[in-house]
Design brief:
Elements: E1 12-16, H1 24-39, E2 43-49, H2 59-65, H3 67-71, H4 80-106, E3 109-114, H5 117-122, E4 129-132, E5 160-166, H6 175-185, E6 190-193, H7 196-204, E7 211-212, H8 222-228, E8 240-243, H9 249-262, E9 266-270, E10 281-284, H10 288-297, E11 300-303, H11 306-314, E12 319-322, H12 329-338, E13 344-345, H13 360-383
Parallel strand pairs: 1-2, 1-4, 2-3, 4-5, 5-6, 6-7, 8-9, 8-11, 9-10, 11-12, 12-13
Helix pairs in contact: 2-4, 8-10
């Protein structure tokens, strides 16, 4: 230990993760990581690190060139993007508001904000243990290259380094990234990853014994999420919840057909008014607590999100999971682990999936085993 254990004798753990990605799943996995570490008698802090495109002043540019551009083809028309800068900046601000409120009220963020890996190197937070957290921290496509911060290169020499539920999020490694990954990860004492596939990829570059564990959000049971949930924005009638991260007309059509079949209205969680669909109710940028409440009370869920699938399963909500296109392996890994691959839609004409029962007792039994495996890993990683 580095001698910064707090007054209670609990080891301090500095976690670097994708806590500030502009989506609910990233916020909630960070919160769950913090809760799990606290339950194991550690004192976690979340390193307030920003990738270049996640720096608040850069988020409008990111939206114009990334997700919003993909969802609004009009941006491809010359001159439209420049005209859209002001309205897009308002969309970005509205989207960020509930996420930022949650981060600053519920996460133990470091006092220092770090806007580059170099800033972290120059003034790293003090801790007994440095931890790479969950989400797609080792996905070089998502991170637009090798981001050394997520490999704890800023940790002082000789510091204890661990990884908890880290994700590579893709089925392959590029040749150029194998060497820096191997060099950085060889300094870790304990590594756990979110997918079996990630463990296999690490093994292929000489990083052996990575332990697959479940996503941090699955470590908290329904009653624990219930304490966080805000139901004030929840509809007072049964509904199908739609949580869609990728533009997909077939997804939209399927949701309408399933709504007609089940005779239930559609309520869509949206990150902006541009995501509204005809014939649906839209909940634009709910609070993070409201997001959990919407999942908790849904009669049915349709999603192309990993965390949308995870919350549906964990909260006992019937669901159908639709491929997001890329990075779908993590969803399938979760469904395979629980024996629920039939919930993965591979035919947009298949409405009978809604009638197939889900054995949520079996799912929770699997999760209970996996929870204990993850706790055993963390206890060892923290104490050894």
């Amino acid at each position: 230990m580095n001698g910064v254990t707090n007054d209670s004798g609990r080891p301090t753990v500095a976690v670097v993760t994708l806590h500030n990605s502009p989506n609910y799943g990233s916020c909630l996995q960070t919160y769950a990581t913090q809760m799990v570490l606290s339950s194991l008698n550690a004192t976690p802090s979340i390193v307030d690190y920003y990738r270049h495109d996640a720096i608040p002043s850069n988020e409008t540019e990111r939206a114009l060139n990334g997700q919003l551009a993909a969802k609004m083809p009009l941006f491809k028309v010359p001159g439209i993007k420049a005209l859209a800068r002001i309205p897009v900046s308002r969309i970005v601000a509205r989207r960020a508001k509930p996420l930022n409120e949650f981060r600053h009220s519920k996460l133990a963020l470091t006092a220092e904000k770090y806007y580059s890996a170099e800033a972290l190197n120059q003034n790293p937070p003090e801790a007994d243990i440095y931890c790479t957290g969950s989400d797609q921290v080792w996905n070089s496509i998502w991170n637009k290259g090798f981001d050394p911060a997520f490999y704890l290169t800023f940790a002082p020499k000789g510091s204890k380094r661990i990884a908890y539920a880290a994700s590579i999020g893709k089925p392959f490694l590029e040749e150029w990234e194998k060497r820096p990954m191997r060099e950085a990860l060889s300094k870790y004492s304990h590594i756990s990853v979110r997918e079996e596939q990630a463990a296999e990829l690490l093994d292929s570059i000489g990083i052996h014994n990575a332990v697959p564990v479940i996503d941090p959000t699955l470590m908290l049971k329904r009653d624990e999420w219930s304490h966080l949930a805000d139901r004030s924005a929840t509809p007072n009638r049964p509904y199908i919840l739609v949580y869609q991260l990728n533009r997909n007309k077939e997804f939209d059509q399927y949701a309408r057909r399933l709504s007609a079949k089940l005779q239930l209205p559609l309520y869509r969680i949206a990150y902006g008014v541009h995501e509204r669909r005809a014939g649906e109710h839209t909940v634009v940028c709910p609070s993070v607590e409201g997001f959990v409440g919407l999942f908790m009370n849904a009669e049915y869920v349709i999603t192309d999100s990993f965390h949308g699938t995870a919350f549906s399963m964990n909260l006992g909500r019937p669901f159908v999971s639709i491929s997001p296109g890329r990075f779908s392996g993590r969803i399938m890994n979760l469904l395979e682990m629980t024996g629920e691959t039939s919930r993965y839609l591979d035919d947009y004409g298949n409405l009978s999936i809604a009638e197939q029962p889900i054995d949520f007792t079996r799912i929770q039994n699997v999760f209970d085993i996996k929870r204990e495996e993850a706790r055993a890993f963390l206890r060892s990683a923290i104490s050894e």
